[in-house]
């Protein structure tokens, strides 16, 4: 019999609905799993003190036949810097002394909690969520459940590790340049980055990444991703971008998918290339016409400017909150100092490139339905190392592993990472599907069809008093 912690979110909810299990018993199972894995995995920054009370309240609602939503009572984790009532929220920066809990939830968290989900814990991230691994001087380094000495990616790496290991089937996080999709690829999960505005943001900590960052979730199945999105999405009169257009209808013809294996001459791990190419057969079997070609958008200058975005963003944060800047670790203070020295023309160039990319992407998705790439360029690397130094034997820079994802955020498009065949040594690999603005439902439809052909949720790391 499958352990309760191993169920998907929708499976847990089905157990609540038919009386096979209660939210309290499921919470106990998830906590037992967490304690079997922590602190070795180090995915969690703090446990939520009110989890049992929330589970008991949910159980009472199910007994009365009045659940708040179909996922009422399902446990979830929340990324450290997402503001959550009753728990502190931080950028994972070093800090001494007491840290007051937040008095409110930011909007995406509020919508999930209003639907009755149980907050289990907050999860680790790199400082200021601007790196693609998960380690910081305050909370330490998070390991990948599939290989604890290696990284789960970042910046929603703690949430990815927690969901892959079985603490909770849903990890709330953010994606500002691939921070849901790449951790999903490194840990065998589904990571959906939505169209800008579909999940409105309000009441959270400021992001250093312009308007690129969206809130979302890591899950084990596409059905769970769809169920979470149904709770988080929808307009808010206080958020302009959330007045979302009517989603485009699915095209009646076969879907036109363009597969791009490599961006220019950037290296790609051969094991990732092989797994993603194998998955194209599943995509074609789902009714898509798949062609292969070169990357059709000009993102070279934006990629070159990408480090400046984080530096300028940190400079702004520290200017508005000097105490935060004084607490920050030295590398982030140095980044902010560089950002403060950047001329206004640098930011203007970035904004010009972003506007041009969004227009070009709009034109592109009038001609195709899906752009398909690997989600990651490198397999997981040592957990305390910021980035891999080499890919396929070639030296790479800090974002060499992350080349496939950041442009999606800049273009305001939806993208999803799906598990595909693991590497020969068992490390997870992800395939990224990108659709036109507003076509999030199309992505989920295609992802579900691919999942039916080759299910992945049964693959999970083993635990026996330790991870591994």
Brief overview:
The chain has helices at 9-18, 23-37, 51-64, 107-114, 157-165, 181-187, 222-232, 270-285, 300-320, 322-327, 330-341, 344-364, 406-410, 440-453, and strands at 44-47, 75-79, 118-123, 135-136, 140-141, 170-175, 190-193, 214-219, 255-259, 288-292, 370-374, 390-391, 394-395, 415-420, 429-434.
Describe this structure in words.
There is one protein chain. With 468 residues, this protein is of the alpha/beta class. The chain has helices at residues 9-18, 23-37, 51-64, 107-114, 157-165, 181-187, 222-232, 270-285, 300-320, 322-327, 330-341, 344-364, 406-410, 440-453; strands spanning 44-47, 75-79, 118-123, 135-136, 140-141, 170-175, 190-193, 214-219, 255-259, 288-292, 370-374, 390-391, 394-395, 415-420, 429-434. The strands form three sheets. An eleven-stranded mixed sheet has the order 1-3-2-6-8-7-14-15-11-9-10, with helices on both faces. The chain has a two-stranded antiparallel sheet with strand order 4-5. A hairpin with a 2-residue loop joins strand 12 and strand 13 (394-395). Helix 9 packs across helix 11 (330-341) and helix 9 (300-320) crosses helix 12. The longest helix has 21 residues, at 300-320. The protein is globular and about 55 Å long.
Overall pLDDT: 96
The proportion of strand residues reads 5-15%
Round the Cα radius of gyration to an integer and report it. 21 Å
Query: What order do the helices and strands follow?
Result: HHEHEHEEEHEHEEHEHEHHHHEEEHEEH
What proportion of the residues is helical, as a percent range? 25-40%
**Measured distance between first and last alpha carbons:** 21 Å
């Amino acid at each position: 019999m499958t352990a309760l912690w191993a169920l998907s979110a929708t499976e847990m909810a089905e157990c609540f609905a038919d009386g096979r299990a209660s939210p309290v018993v499921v919470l106990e199972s998830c906590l037992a799993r967490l304690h079997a894995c922590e602190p070795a995995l180090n995915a969690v920054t703090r446990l939520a003190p009110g989890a049992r009370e929330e589970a008991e309240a949910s159980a009472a609602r199910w007994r009365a036949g009045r659940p708040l939503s179909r996922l009422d009572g399902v446990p979830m984790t929340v990324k450290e810097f997402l503001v959550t009532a009753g728990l502190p929220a931080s950028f994972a920066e070093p800090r001494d002394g007491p840290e007051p809990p937040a008095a409110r939830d930011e909007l995406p968290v509020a919508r999930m909690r209003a639907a009755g989900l149980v907050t289990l814990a907050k999860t680790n991230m790199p400082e200021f969520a601007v790196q693609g691994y998960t380690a910081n001087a305050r909370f330490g380094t998070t390991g990948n459940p599939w290989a604890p000495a290696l990284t789960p990616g970042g910046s929603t790496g703690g949430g990815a590790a927690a969901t892959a290991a079985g603490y909770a089937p849903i990890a709330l996080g953010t994606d500002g340049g691939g921070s849901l999709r790449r951790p999903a690829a490194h840990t065998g999960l589904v990571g959906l980055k939505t169209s800008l505005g579909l999940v409105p943001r309000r009441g959270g900590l400021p992001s250093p990444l312009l308007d690129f960052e969206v809130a979302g979730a890591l899950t084990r199945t596409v059905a769970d991703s769809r169920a979470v999105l149904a709770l988080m999405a929808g307009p808010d009169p206080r958020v302009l971008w959330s007045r979302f257009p009517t989603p485009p209808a699915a095209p009646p013809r076969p879907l036109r998918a363009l597969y791009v294996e490599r961006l220019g001459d950037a290296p790609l791990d051969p094991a990732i290339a092989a797994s993603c190419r194998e998955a194209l057969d599943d995509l074609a079997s789902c009714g898509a016409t798949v062609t292969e070609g070169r990357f059709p958008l000009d993102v070279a200058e934006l990629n070159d400017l990408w480090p400046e975005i984080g530096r300028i963003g940190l400079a702004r944060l520290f200017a508005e909150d000097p105490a935060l800047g004084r607490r920050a670790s030295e590398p982030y203070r140095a980044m902010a100092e560089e950002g403060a020295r950047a001329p206004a023309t640098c930011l203007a160039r970035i904004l010009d490139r972003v506007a041009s990319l969004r227009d070009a992407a709009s034109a592109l998705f009038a001609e195709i339905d899906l752009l398909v790439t690997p989600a990651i360029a490198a397999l997981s690397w040592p957990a305390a190392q910021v980035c891999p130094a080499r890919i396929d034997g070639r030296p790479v820079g800090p974002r060499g592993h992350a080349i496939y994802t950041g442009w999606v955020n800049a273009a305001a498009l939806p993208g999803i990472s799906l598990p595909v065949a693991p590497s020969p040594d068992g490390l997870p690999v992800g395939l990224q599907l990108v659709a036109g603005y507003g076509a999030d439902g199309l992505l989920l439809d295609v992802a579900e069809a691919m999942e039916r052909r080759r299910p992945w949720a049964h693959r999970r790391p083993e635990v026996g008093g330790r991870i591994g």
